[in-house]
Amino acid sequence: MTFKSSDVFKLDQAWWKKHKPLTVKSTGLGATINTYLAAKKAAVDFSKKGTWEGTEQKDDPLKGAMDILTITLPAAVLKAEKACSKHSDAVTYLRTAKNVLKAEHTALTKLQSDFAKRYGKVRGDLVMPAVLAVHENNIFKQGAHTLYKDAETAANDLITMGKSAAALTGQAAYKLACDAQSRFLELEEHLEGLKDLAESAQKEYKAVSGFSNQVPKLTDADAKAVLKNVDEAQKARNAIDVYRDKAAVFVQSGSAQLEKIASSGAGNQTQMTAAEAKDRIGKLVDSLFKVKESGRAISNTLVAYLQNLTLAEQNLETAAKTLRMDVADLPVYCREALLNGPKLQDKITKLHGQFHRMKKSVMKTIPPALLNDPAVAKKVVKLQAESADMDVMKSGMDTKRADCDRRAKVVIGLVG
């Protein structure tokens, strides 16, 4: 079977089995989809009828479903995508999973919120945030593992380049030096990403560790759940720190290899051509566009909070109806906005920094004289436009976050 361009990823094992390329062997995606759907059903039932009493952390259906959604299922989709690499229509279809999984994440988060409301404010203020902090740090850990493996690959590539550098001369030596410089810049960028993740994981751990002092307010089962989550958040943070420190060693060894390659190619370098400069800046623009779009998705989340809070200021009943909740529950939504606002702003700040580091790293490799070439100049104009958009997004995020905080506090006061 083939995929239509309009097909969107479905959480349906039978559909996937029917449509996946016949030449592709089973990847386990269908089975993982079924596992998730069963876990989600258990989570729905638990959110309506379950309690923390006597429920061990490992048996919590809400956590189980979230773990499959954020760790196991994305890994299964990626495995299927790699297996279907020769089938572009299947790859395009699988890449639509991102938005579907995001919607599922929103649904599960609502189940957790519903459970917290039903089961009591003290438990909701301590147990659920502890669970969510662990999920956040586990997501960070997955991202850190990917960055670490990319950094390891880049470091190994530099070692391979270093071994062949001495035998090259002329244009070949110069091209190798340029390739090595680009690879090293990527390696540095991976390290910066790991530093950002380590910082974010530390913040989550610091926040959740503060709950330890409040466990006497909870039942024994809930207290154990909180303390176990504190421990899990710390373990995830420590794992990320290890990835970061190992990547820092890669950067040191990569720097030595880069010097070796540059030394071997000394005297053989020829000027970069306009075509090469145009291609390099063009690839940079494409990469920066993806970073900017990631930032836009984050910004849109804060905009949604702001729109709903603005509506609530004007009419509490209309806002409650829009959010499908009682007016009395609006302060819960406001506190959620106050909690998530700084996180969203922090993510934009980090993306903004990543954006400009990438821009600076590549542009410093372009000879100034080539910037006057018409074709190169045209690419530079696109680059500056992307840069301006990112700067506006960053400054706009700061303003929106402050406005969101103010309106949330106003609505809390209105509900009383």
Verbal overview:
This protein has 416 residues and is mostly helical. It folds into three domains: 1-111, no CATH class; 119-270, Methane Monooxygenase Hydroxylase, Chain G, domain 1; 273-416, no CATH class. Helices cover 81% and strands 0% of the residues. It has twelve helices and no strands. The chain has helices spanning 13-19, 29-49, 61-83, 88-94, 97-119, 121-165, 170-209, 220-264, 274-314, 316-322, 330-363, 374-415. Helix 2 (29-49) runs antiparallel to helix 3 and helix 6 runs antiparallel to helix 7 (170-209). The radius of gyration is 25 Å and the shape is globular. Mean pLDDT is 82; it is low at 53-58.
Strand count, sense and closure of the main sheet? none
Strand content: under 5%
Total DSSP E strands: 0
- If you consult CATH, what is the topology of the largest domain? Methane Monooxygenase Hydroxylase, Chain G, domain 1
Structural class: mainly alpha
The residue fraction in helices comes out at: over 70%
Estimated radius of gyration: 25 Å
Distance between the termini: 58 Å
Q: Which residue ranges are poorly predicted, with pLDDT under 50 across at least 5 consecutive positions?
A: 53-58
Domain module tally: 3
**Average pLDDT:** 82
Label the CATH architecture of the largest domain: Up-down Bundle
Summarize the structure.
With 416 residues, this protein is mostly helical.
Write the layout of secondary structure elements.
Blueprint: H1 13-19, H2 29-49, H3 61-83, H4 88-94, H5 97-119, H6 121-165, H7 170-209, H8 220-264, H9 274-314, H10 316-322, H11 330-363, H12 374-415
